[in-house]
Amino acid sequence: MAGGPSPGWPGHFRQAGRDGLRAALAASRANLLDRLADYRAALGDRLLVPYAGELNPPLWELGHIAWFEEFWVARNPERAAGLAAKAETPRPPSVLAAADACYDSSRVAHATRWQLPLPDLAGTLDYLAAVREATLAGLDAMPDSELYFVQLAVLHEDMHAEAWAYMAQTLGLPLRLNPPPAIAEAAGEIALAGGDWLLGSAEAGFAFDNELPPGPVRLAPFAIDAEAVSWRRYLPFIAADGYGRPEFWSKNGNSWRQAQIAERGVALPRYLRRRGEAWEIRRFGRWQELDPEQPAVHLTHFEAEAWCRWAGRRLPGEAEWEMACLSRPEAFRWGGVWEWTASAFAPFPGFAPHPYADYSRPWFDGRPVLRGASPATSARLRHARYRNYFTAERNDIFAGFRSCAG
């Protein structure tokens, strides 16, 4: 699956003007409301889900999306300063009483979100609509320096809509989402000579702070899979007792593997099971026959590393992934799964946090970088420079990998 326009091409959301922003605001909201319709059909209007560290209450998340947009757009007195805006500047009150106390994710502890006195669904939808009305009313008068915050709000909403797809998979809720296209096994490898590469966003338009500033890196020659690893390539690792052989696993990977055996009686990819001679995968609550040509998905970083050791391969660094994606777009196919890399999520030299400082800075803790996109990722968020980041044990996300040699 192609990953969409390369950065810098006209037409990508990162280069959107006001008309593009209006269209994106409408499309992002329509996508969110489609997800909400699926959740309401499965859970009713109270939208109750059990507590789990990888989940958020859907009603809280809806209000948080509205709060974030209002906080950074309508209520932001520093908006004209653009990236120099000071987040701590006092703001006028929200249109919803106690919104800051309920929805500020930097200050509202995760475990408390299930007990907050939130508005009901109708009240939350009213809040979303009121905030969006204010954003649209002010859009035409905003100087270009202020449009960054509208773009940020759109992409933030897209991220939460994708998180709802992860949550539906975790809870086994029906969700309308097309599977990724099959892997073209004949694609093989892409050989690259290495050399100098400018890592990070150098194009005009929106960029996240962790993509900046761009800087040169020197890469040795390498070969990289043209596609993500498919189940057809991954299943032989299971058949070779890869999950029972500690020599393929890192220290932390072995701890994860042993914990899986203690909890489930077996270590296997999440949502995968054997039925006689066939493999099945659970997708949004339904077990179905595994298509071996699909990308292997719901894998931890530990599993990706272990497969690579078994296969005599390695995970690519994020600079290698980016070089292959952007220098060989005709051959490098991406977008079926988020892809684990060998790189730790860390600031680039010269990093400076953007006004929403909690987007990146608190998470520079060594967790791996993922590159790419998934079928649940919006076209606005798909970008070859985008750095995703999750802790290594996460397998609720739509994550797989591709491998490297050299």
Brief digest:
The chain has 406 residues and is of the alpha+beta class.
Name the descriptors.
12 strands; disordered N terminus; paralog of FGE (formylglycine-generating enzyme); alpha+beta; 9 helices; 406 residues; 12% strand; four-stranded mixed sheet; three-stranded antiparallel sheet; 2 domains
Please characterize this protein's 3D structure.
This protein is of the alpha+beta class and 406 residues long. The chain folds into 2 domains: 159 residues; 221 residues, paralog of FGE (formylglycine-generating enzyme) (Alpha-Beta Complex), CATH 3.90.1580.10. 33% of the residues lie in helices and 12% in strands. The strands form 4 sheets. The chain has a 4-stranded mixed beta sheet with strand order 10-9-8-11, with helices on one face. A hairpin with a 2-residue loop joins strand 6 and strand 7. Helix 2 packs parallel to helix 4 and helix 7 packs across helix 8. The protein is globular.
> What is the global morphology?
globular
Order of helices and strands: HHHHHEEEEHHEEEHHEEEEE
Instruction: Classify the fold: give the CATH topology of the largest domain.
Output: paralog of FGE (formylglycine-generating enzyme)
CATH class of the largest domain: Alpha Beta
Helix content: 25-40%
Got a strand count? 12
Separate helix tally: 9
State the assembly state of the protein chains. Answer: single chain
Average pLDDT, to the nearest integer?
A: 95
CATH homologous superfamily of the largest domain - what is it? Answer: paralog of FGE (formylglycine-generating enzyme)
How many domains make up the coordinates?
Answer: 2
Please give the largest β-sheet.
4 strands, mixed
User: Which class of secondary structure composition applies to the elements?
Assistant: alpha+beta
Q: Tell me the span between the first and last alpha carbons.
A: 25 Å
